[in-house]
């Protein structure tokens, strides 16, 4: 029975994969990028869509102008912050540029948390999430990215239980509107050990998503965020169809810092193979520093290079 609503969910979010095994349908090694990046498969072409955070678009006086810049830079959509934007302005930007609002990032989710010990704060977090779902739906988006809490709010069990209880109250609205709650893996000291080294797995994240028992709660998996703590390709394989969207930034284990997307030492060949293995179809949001049109073109090109899209 669980397969039916999940398939409906994937159809609603625009990432319904073809039925059947990936192996045999897609060659992971037969099609590769041009010389210089030959280890990266090209099988994501035509099924992988580039978006970016609205705050990265530094030029443009309104959403229409910002969306036009994103389109010229080579992106397929834009992620807004919700709630907080003018819905009619967003609709106008979509209509005039042809770029969709693929999703949003929930406002205040770092400061007003679903794991806070104070029930009044958790209620505020819930109210913000509900409004984010509504405004995302109104603009045509299909996901709200959410940071669920922080380890400083209590024990892992307390953070887990409080956040699951709070966020679960938003799931009926998410289902009604067809907008998924997309949990991001971030440096919030939850579901991983901050000092635990680089051999950790995504098992806790998978169990956390499963705790909601709903196809309307998944992950917006950030490719760069946990390269410090584990093998990104294996995390993708573990999370599987729980991943509804992606974020990407670079990270250097050697230097211990975030980098531009195509710098650092993330194993994008393995990441791409893993995405093909789970039959990923959908959106990936750049989450790096912002800039003007020329700079954003370099970000889009870095995504093409890293995922074999060029």
Which of globular, elongated, flat, extended, rod-shaped describes the shape?
Answer: globular
Looking at the overall shape, the CATH architecture is Alpha-Beta Barrel
Topology, number of strands: 10
| Helix vs. strand class | alpha/beta
Under CATH, the homologous superfamily reads Divalent-metal-dependent TIM barrel enzymes
How would you sum up the major sheet? 8 strands, parallel
Question: How many distinct helices?
Answer: 10
What order do the strands of the largest sheet run in, or round the barrel if closed? 1-10-7-6-5-4-3-2
In short:
36% of the residues lie in helices and 15% in strands. It is built from ten helices and ten strands.
Walk me through what this model shows:
The strands form two sheets. Strands 1-10-7-6-5-4-3-2 form an eight-stranded parallel sheet. Strands 8-9 form a two-stranded antiparallel ribbon. The longest helix has 20 residues, at about 120-140. Helix 2 (about 65-75) packs across helix 10 (about 295-305), helix 4 (about 120-140) crosses helix 5 and helix 8 packs parallel to helix 9 (about 270-275). The protein has ten helices and ten strands. The chain has about 300 residues and is α/β, with parallel strands linked by helices. Helix content is about 35%, strand content about 15%. The chain has helices at about 5-10, 65-75, 85-95, 120-140, 155-170, 170-175, 205-210, 230-240, 270-275, 295-305; strands spanning about 50, 80, 100-105, 145, 180-185, 215-220, 245-250, 250, 255-260, 280-285. It is globular. The model is unreliable at about 1-35 (pLDDT under 50). Helix 3 (about 85-95) links the parallel strand 2 and strand 3 (about 100-105). The chain has one domain (about 5-15, about 45-300): Divalent-metal-dependent TIM barrel enzymes (TIM Barrel, Alpha-Beta Barrel).
